[in-house]
Amino acid sequence: MIEMKLRSQPVGISLRKRITVILVRPEKRENIGLVARNMKNTGFENLRLVNVERIDQKSYVTAVHAQEILDNIRFCKDMTDATRDIDVIFAATSRKRKNFLALSLRDAVQKIFSFPPQTKVGLLFGNERTGLTSEEMLSSNYRFIIPQVSKQPSYNLASAVLLTLFHIYASDDLKNVEITQEKPLPRKEQEECIRIILDKLEKKGFIHKTNKFHVTEMIYNLFGRLSMTAKDRKLLLAIFSKIGH
Amino acid sequence: MIEMKLRSQPVGISLRKRITVILVRPEKRENIGLVARNMKNTGFENLRLVNVERIDQKSYVTAVHAQEILDNIRFCKDMTDATRDIDVIFAATSRKRKNFLALSLRDAVQKIFSFPPQTKVGLLFGNERTGLTSEEMLSSNYRFIIPQVSKQPSYNLASAVLLTLFHIYASDDLKNVEITQEKPLPRKEQEECIRIILDKLEKKGFIHKTNKFHVTEMIYNLFGRLSMTAKDRKLLLAIFSKIGH
Q1: Where are the alpha helices (DSSP H) in chain B?
Q2: Domain residue spans in chain B?
Q3: ipTM score for this prediction
Q4: How many CB pairs under 8 A join A and B?
Q5: pTM here?
Q6: Which of A24, A36, A134, B232 has a CA positioned 20 to 30 A from the CA of residue B203?
C-alpha cells in the first residue's frame, strides 16, 4: 500500500523554499494558474517560466487563492537563465528518450531527498503539446516518468506538476531519509564543466560531425547524473586536461 | 518514502471495471473532460454524472484521447439513481463534517482494497464551488480528505479525482492486501435498512423535530461505516424490530 505518513509540519520551510517549478514554453495561460493553485495546495511557492514574457487575467482566474505565487513568478529568457542558480534539475518526460535514463516518479522523489537539505532542486515541465525538446533536456540532471496506464493522452501539464509535488509533499519525514549525496554545484557550473569535456572530446576527434548530437546527449546524461560537486569537477577537469594533451 | 510498486498489469481489469467515479452537479463542462482524461491515464472507465443532462464539445476538447469515457457516461437524475447498484461509496470532502468521520486518502485506498474483489466501489466528488451537500453525503459509506497544506483554495475537481485514482492505481499488488471485509449490500438496500431504523427511532421519540437533521446524519455515518452485509441487515432489523415494540 502507499506509505503516506505526513509530517506534522507537512513541508519543511526549507523544502518549500528550495524547490522550484520551471515551466518551459507553457502555451495556455490557464495552465499557469492551475499549476500555481496545485503548488499552493501542496505547499510550494517558487515558479519560473521560460519563454513567456507575461501572464494575464486568465492565469489569475484559475489560480483562485494562489495569486501571490503568480505575483512572484520569475520570467526567464532561456533555459540557462532558469537553471543557473539551481543545484540539481529533474525533468518530467512522458516517454523514454534514447540517450537519457529515466527514473520513476517514486525514485525521483527519493533521489530529491537524498541530497543535503541546502540543495536547490528544480522541477522541469515542458510545453503542453511537445513536452521538452532534446535541447531543453540537456539542462536536466535526471529525467523521470510519471506512471500511467494509457499512453495517450499523457497527463496534462497541471496534473503532471500536481502528482510530482504531491508525492514530494506526502513523502515520509526527512529525518528518516539517509542523505547519501553531496550538494552539487549550481547547474550553470555543472554545464560549464560538461562543455569543457565536450570541447576536449571534439578536439580529440571522439566527437565529430555525424555523431555530435547523439554523443552530446549521452555526455550530458552521463555527467548530469553525477550531480557534480566541486570535487567531482576538479577530478574531471584533471582527467580531461590529461586527455587533451 | 512513498511505496509505489506498480503491478505488472497496472490496474487489474476487475479493479478498472468495478470502480466508478461519480461527479455530483459538476458546473464546468471542461472539468468533465479533464476528469475523463485523468481516468484514462490511471486506467479507469466508469463515469456517472448527477444532475447533468448532457455534455458538449467543451468536455470533448479537454478529454483529448479519452472520448470513449465521455461516450459511455451514465447520466443520473439523483443520488439514489447514481449509487443504487454500487456496494460501497467513498465521498471526497475538503473539510471535516460535524457528524461524519473522515479517513485520510491513504486509509480510504487501503479500505477499498480490504473489500472482496467483486465489490463495486463508488467515488463521489461534489460540485466545484460547494462540494457535497450534507444530504448528498448521506449517500456515502465513508468520507475521505486529500491532504493539503493550504486550506484555500482546495484542490480543483479534476485534481481531486486524479490524486484519488492515482493512489488507487499506484497502490501495491492486490495479492498482498488482506481482505478483511465481506461484500456489502448494494447501497440502495443499505439505505433502505437505515431508513427503517430511522423510522423506528422516530416512532420511539428518540428522533424528534429539533434533533432530526443532526441525528439522521449521525445514524447514516454510523451504519454507513458498517458497509452493511446481508447478515448485518438481518441482525439490525431483528434488533430494531425488538425496539419497535
Answers
A1: 13-18, 29-42, 57-63, 67-71, 79-83, 105-113, 134-137, 157-169, 187-203, 212-224, 230-244
A2: 13-176, 187-244
A3: 0.77
A4: 128
A5: 0.82
A6: B232
